[in-house]
Design a protein that fits this description.
Blueprint: E1 3-7, H1 39-50, H2 66-69, E2 79-83, H3 90-93, H4 99-117, H5 137-157, E3 163-167, H6 188-197, E4 211-215, H7 222-228, E5 234-242, E6 245-246, E7 251-252, E8 257-258, E9 263-264, E10 293-299, H8 304-322, E11 326-331, H9 348-361, E12 366-371, H10 377-392, H11 403-408
Parallel strand pairs: 1-2, 1-3, 3-12, 4-5, 4-11, 5-10, 11-12
Antiparallel strand pairs: 6-7, 8-9
Helix pairs in contact: 1-10, 5-6, 6-7, 8-9, 9-10
Length: 414
């Protein structure tokens, strides 16, 4: 059983020049100390993944992963990390995005390049919502989709039991058919789901592959929902945070309240916003609704066991009824407890338990995932490797090295 990590980020050097023609992120220009999504995140996550290539879990992080590994040192099968060069053309991307949107995205990138060549500010800030354009935006986003397609190819063309993970940047689950949002430009997971559904390799010959996307990012997967809405043989399960809200005052109440100013100093932690906020001038953004979209929302930060039990009680029966051929995870590390832009309440062991449990539940399906949000460096190293280990280990192994998985394992038995 083998895990392949596919990335569109070739640099492992944290001191590498990130200010050339690359896409630089969407916050505070070149200041990576305050940017929430920038190339350094992919580099950091690759470093976290690369630790697993040493065949054993490094002793330096045993203490961090104690609740997951239960102090046991293990020998791992080899893990492959490969960098994609696959860049789908714009016609291919029309499977999930409107043609005019793709043309406008390309035109904005060309405008940014022209500004850069003229030594002017290359940031185009009026293209989408929280989604600036730089000279490298389109190429980076296309390569992210290419890595997602490669991930699906590995799942369908390798031997049964092999897994793959698309460690990509920029993320994609906020990118709608005709709108860039929240650091996302192309809908990576949704495009991969449609690519997998229509793949030449059919796991049930004569029938399109049935694909589930499980989004465990802190924020709503509005882009994935918009692209997959009413698409046959697909199912989106979107697990997300919902901010507490004062209906009478029309404002979110999960920020820090300042009694002197009689107002909350921070806007709500949900995104996109489901309701308006007068104090912050936020407008509600509708979430697509369709029979193949299941939204599981949690109001406020949660205890990990609360999230797990709702996943088991509410999500697993829906997945069983759908009977997937392919399960794709949108793994947002911002759903981990303490993330500065998220913090739904998941533990590192939560990621491990959900991913490995679903592999146990559907032994005949193919399992993979993609990186979405995550804005705290410590959680790149404590939460991503457990998610990768859950894809890498034998799901039927009776050894319960993870205490949380041992507690819930019986719920995932087929």
């Amino acid at each position: 059983m083998a895990l392949t990590i596919v990335t569109n980020e070739s640099s492992f050097d944290p001191n590498a020049n990130l200010t050339g023609d690359r896409h630089l992120g969407t916050r505070d220009r070149f200041d990576s100390s305050t940017q929430f999504d920038y190339p350094g995140k992919a580099v950091g996550c690759l470093k976290a993944a690369k630790m697993l290539q040493g065949r054993t879990i490094p002793s330096s992080i045993q203490s961090i992963w104690g609740p997951i590994l239960d102090g046991e040192k293990r020998l791992l099968d080899p893990i492959t990390i490969t960098c994609t060069s696959r860049m789908p053309d714009l016609n291919d991307l029309e499977r999930g995005h409107d043609r005019q949107y793709l043309k406008d995205l390309q035109a904005s990138v060309e405008k940014s390049k022209a500004c850069a060549e003229a030594s002017a500010d290359p940031f185009i800030s009026d293209f989408g919502k929280e989604a600036d354009i730089t000279p490298g935006t389109l190429d980076a986003a296309r390569l992210a989709v290419g890595a997602a397609y490669d991930t699906v190819d590995i799942l369908l063309r390798s031997k049964h039991g092999d897994t793959a993970f698309g460690l990509v940047w920029p993320p994609g689950h906020h990118a709608e058919r005709d709108l860039a949002m929240g650091f996302c430009y192309l809908s990576n997971a949704a495009l991969a789901a449609l690519y997998g559904r229509d793949h030449i390799t059919q796991l049930r010959p004569g029938h399109p592959n049935r694909v589930i996307v499980v989004d465990i990012d802190h924020h709503r997967g509005n882009g994935t929902a918009d692209v997959l809405a009413n698409q046959a043989n697909t199912l989106l399960i979107d697990i997300s945070y919902r901010s507490p809200y004062d209906e009478s005052r029309q404002r979110y109440t999960d920020g820090q309240y300042d009694a002197n100013q009689c107002r909350y100093l921070n806007a709500g932690n949900e995104y996109p916003y489901s309701r308006p906020d007068r104090d912050w001038g936020l407008e509600a953004h509708p979430m697509p609704v369709a029979s193949n979209i299941v939204s599981v929302e949690f109001e406020g930060e949660q205890r990990p066991e609360t999230i797990m039990m709702r996943f088991i009680d509410q999500v697993l029966p829906i997945m069983k009824s759908f009977s997937p051929d392919i399960v794709l995870w949108s793994v947002g590390l911002d759903s981990a407890m303490g993330d500065p832009l998220g913090g739904l309440g998941n533990l590192p062991s939560s990621f491990y338990t959900m991913l490995r449990g679903v592999r146990l539940l559907f032994p005949d399906a193919r399992h993979g995932g993609f990186l979405e949000g995550g804005y705290d460096e410590q959680r790149w190293f404590t939460c991503l490797p457990p998610a990768l280990l859950a894809l890498h280990e034998q799901p039927q192994d009776a050894g319960n090295r993870c205490k949380l998985f041992a507690k819930y394992r019986h719920h995932f038995l087929p």
